[in-house]
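JOB MANIFEST
job_type = single_chain_structure
chain_count = 1
residues = 144
[input]
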Amino acid sequence: DLAARCSPAQSGGLTLTTLGGFLALTPTGDLTALERVASACVRDLDPFRAPASPDELARRRSAGLTTRQEALMMEWGYPYVMEEFRFHLTLSGRLAQADRTAWMKTAQTHLPPLGNRYDLGSIALCGERPDGRFELIQRYTLTG
């Protein structure tokens, strides 16, 4: 139902960056449409969310959340949603500062040209396997 109500989103191209010690692809340009899709996912799928455990809340708080991030976590179960969300496609685990430049160069040699437009045309339902990795269950085309 969500995918049927939500229209596709576009932004400028993707760029390779480091985000919190991870390599990631992040969008450029106007992010309004991507933020619209992300907010709809949080808002519309919230009834299906399990409440955060006390350990999870403590772990998140240990990162030094802002007042707004704390409020978002209490309302939505995660501090980096709505205006605190930064769309990204994670490419690595956390890298040591000394290794990031080399990994950036390695990633750049293996990435195709990223272009100047990124189209988000679907959302995916994923599950977490026992080993902690995510697995695709179903992909839904945004048709709204």
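[summary]
The first strand starts at residue 9 and ends at 11.
The chain is about 35% helix and 25% strand.
exit_status = 0
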